[in-house]
Amino acid sequence: MSVFVIAILLAVLAGIIFTLIGLISGSDETAILVPSTLIVVLLGAPPEAVFAFFMSAILAKHLTHAIPTALMGVPGDTLAAPMLEHANFMRRIGLPHIALRKMISGGIIGAFIALPVALLFAVFLSQFGTFFQENAGIIFTCAAILIGYFSKGRWVSILLIVPLALVIQGLNLVSSTILGSGLSISFFLGIAIGPLLTDLLIATSRSARPLIERTKPNEYKLAPEQKSWSGYFPNPFKVLTKKQASAVGGTSFLSSLTFALSPVGMTSLMGELIGSRIKGQYKKSTTSLATMNGVTESTYVAETIIPLVAFGIPLSPVAIGPAQALFNAPPVFTTEPLHNLHTMMEPLDFLIYGLIGLVIASVIAYPFSMNYARKATVFVLKRINQEAIIGMFIGIVCLLAFYEGGLVGITVTFAMAMVGGMLNRFLGVGVGVQFMIFYGSSWIISTLIGL
C-alpha cells in the first residue's frame, strides 16, 4: 500500500475519531493527542501519514469543540475557555446556533491560511536550525523560565525548575539501572495525563473529594436547530460576513507567525483586539467568536509546523504538548540524535500531507458540526460516559508505557503524572513548563548542579 493511500486512510480515521471526541466537553488536547499519535507512530506508519493523521486530528477536534462551547456553555477544551463569555451572551439571546456556525466557519478558514504561511516562515527560520539544535539544553531551560513566568504559577513555576529536573533525572536513573537504558515516552505520557490523573486521585481521597463533588447533575438547555443553507456542505465564506472573514484572515495570518506564544493567550488576545473595534454586542460577539476559533486552528497548525520544519526540536507550547510524538517517540523518532519528521520529510511533503489532513478533516467535521450539532450533543449527554472515555485513555497510556519499559515504564508514568498533576492543579505549574523542564533536565542537572 502506498504512502499516499495510508496517509488518506489515517487522516480519515483521525477525522472520524476526533470529530466525536471534540463533542465531549473538557477533553484535554495533550492527554488525548499524545497517546493517539504515539500509537500511530509505534505501529510503523510512514512519517507522511503520521503528519496527515495529526493535522486531521487537530482540525477535527477544534471544529467540534465549538459544539459544547456554543450550545452548552461548557468549554470543549482548554482553548475554548476564552470564548465562553461571547458564547454565553449568544445563548442568553437565544442564538447559540449562530455562534456555533460563526466559530466553525472561522476555524476552517484559519487552518487553511496557517498551513502555507507557517511553512514559508519555517523555511526562513530553518537557516538558524543548527544553532538551536546545538544549544538545545540551555534553550529548553530558558524556555521553561519564560513559560513559567507567564503561567498561572509564575514564581513557583520558576522556583521548582531545578527540583523537578532533579526528580525527573532521579526517576530516569532508577529506570536506567533496572532496564539498562533510560525512558522517554513514559515521562511525557506522565506529564500529559497529570491533570487528569490528579482528578482521579482526588476522587479516591476522602479528605480531598469535596473539591470535585457535585450535589446535583448539570442541566443544559439546547436551542432547536435552524438550517439556513441548502445542501450538506455550507460555504464558510457565506456564513461569515465580509468583515468577519477579513478579521479571521488577518488574525490567522498574524498568529501563524507567533509560534512561541501560548495558543490560549493568542486566542484571547486576538479576540479582544478585534472585539474592541466593533460596536454592538451581537456583532462584537459573533465576530470575536469567528476570529478566536480561527486563531485556535492557526496557532495549532503553526506551532506544530514551524518547530518541526525549522528546528526538529519542540520549541513551541503545542510542540511540547499535543504534538510531542511528532518530535520524540523512541525508538522511531528521537531528538537526540535528531531523527524525526524534520529529517524524514521535505517542506513540500509537509504542504501536501498537511493539506490531505486538513481537507479530509474539513469534509468530515465541518458539515457534521453544521448539520448535526444538536443531535450529536444530545447523544453525547445521554449516552456517552465521560469517565469511560477517561478510563480508555488511561488504558492506552498504560499500554504505551508498558511497551517502552514494562512495569517500570508504567510506574514511572504514574509517578510523573502524580507529581506533575499535583503541581499543575494546586500550584499552577503548567504542562508546558513541565515538558520544557523534562527536555532540559539533563543539562540543568549536569551543568547547574554538576551531577
Describe this entry's structure for a reader.
- The chain is mainly α and 451 residues long.
- It has one domain.
- It has helices at 3-21, 29-42, 47-64, 66-72, 84-92, 96-125, 129-134, 136-149, 155-159, 161-179, 185-204, 236-239, 242-255, 263-275, 281-310, 324-327, 341-344, 347-383, 386-427, 431-449, and strands spanning 334-335, 338-339.
- Strands 1-2 form a two-stranded antiparallel ribbon.
- A hairpin with a 2-residue loop joins strand 1 (334-335) and strand 2 (338-339).
- Helix 1 (3-21) packs parallel to helix 3 (47-64).
- The mean pLDDT is 86.
- The chain crosses the membrane at residues 6-26, 38-60, 66-84, 104-125, 131-151, 158-179, 185-204, 350-368, 388-414, 426-449.
- Residues 9-426 form the DUF112 domain.
- It comes from Oceanobacillus piezotolerans.
Low-confidence stretches: none
Total beta-strand segments: 2
Q: What is the averaged pLDDT score?
A: 86
- Cα radius of gyration in angstroms: 21 Å
What pattern of helices and strands is seen along the backbone? HHHHHHHHHHHHHHHHEEHHHH
Secondary structure: elements and pairs:
Layout: H1 3-21, H2 29-42, H3 47-64, H4 66-72, H5 84-92, H6 96-125, H7 129-134, H8 136-149, H9 155-159, H10 161-179, H11 185-204, H12 236-239, H13 242-255, H14 263-275, H15 281-310, H16 324-327, E1 334-335, E2 338-339, H17 341-344, H18 347-383, H19 386-427, H20 431-449
